[in-house]
Amino acid sequence: MGTMKIKAKEKDGIVKVKFMIKHPMLTYDQAKKKGTDPNFITHIGAKVGDKIVYDVSTSQFFSKNPQFKFKFKGAKKGDELCITWTDLSGKTVTECKKIK
Amino acid sequence: MNRRNFIGFGVLAMATLPATLSAFSSIDFRKTKPDTWTAKTVDNAVKALYGDIKPEESGVTVKAPKVASNGGAVPITVKSDIPAKTVAVFQDMNPESAVAVWNVPEGGIVDYSFKIKLKATDENGGNGTVYAIVEGRDGKFYKGKVSLQVAKGGCEG
């Protein structure tokens, strides 16, 4: 399994998405205490095909293994939703899931 | 294409063409507005992101538990029916203020839920506040807020 858990469900034209990213989300303060480098997710984007449906720049203040929910229009059951995240270290991960 | 030029072009295009023709592209606000993320107060963070704005206090709902027992993961929901261009969330408990900035696609639904870390508020019933600002497609700004107490801080780790 990957680093993400994604659930996407379409009903009456609206797709509800819930996702969780496995990430320590280490703040500057926490990293200093542990003597390691801070690392947290800085950007998350979601697409269906080449259409962006979610686009957020994030900070250190999201919880460990952060969870998100959002809704969007314009996709149907069977379409593939792809979520990409980038963290401070430059790591980028994309995972896709079919909309139910 | 140069990213900055491209965004500039998008703004121009929106002013001159119907909005439906302008391409929607991803924005990394950490790169375009770096000072937002280091600002220590909500006012300064807002200023760094949007400039000198006077948001109306209407049309934006921010939900949070009245008392969060675990500051490590405080659930927040931001909702608005205003056609939005961007949505930004700030708080006044942590060392820096900015939490996140959403770039909203045309016709996008503003109904975002997420969990954040907050420092404990003071034991004598002091409250902290989470703010959300919506930049409307009408060029105006709207604001919503919620106050809460955090029993156990989430930043001490």
Describe the structure.
The complex is a heterodimer of chains A (100) and B (157). Chain A has 100 residues and is mostly beta strands. Helices cover 7% and strands 54% of the residues of chain A. Chain A has 1 helix and 7 strands. The two termini of chain A are 19 Å apart. Chain B has 157 residues and is of the alpha+beta class. Chain B has a single domain, classed as SoxY domain (Immunoglobulin-like, Sandwich), CATH 2.60.40. Chain B has a 5-stranded mixed β-sheet. Chain B has a 3-stranded antiparallel β-sheet with strand order 1-3-6, with no helix packed on it. At the A-B interface, helix 1, strand 3, strand 4 and strand 5 of A face strand 5 and strand 6 of B. Strand 4 of chain A pairs antiparallel with strand 5 of chain B.
Q: Unreliable segments of chain A (pLDDT under 50, ≥5 consecutive)?
A: none
Derived from helix and strand composition plus strand pairing, the structural class of chain B reads alpha+beta
Portion of residues in beta strands of chain B equals: 25-35%
Please name the two chains that share the biggest interface, counting residues whose Cβ lies under 8 Å from a Cβ on the partner chain: A-B, 35 and 38 residues
Q: Helical amount among residues of chain A, as a percent range?
A: under 10%
The number of domains of chain B is 1
Quantity of strands of chain B, as a count: 8
Rg of chain B, alpha carbons: 17 Å
Tell me the helix content of chain B. Answer: 10-25%
How far apart the termini of chain A lie comes to 19 Å
Order of helices and strands of chain B: HHHEEEEEEEE
Briefly, what CATH class of chain B?
Answer: Mainly Beta
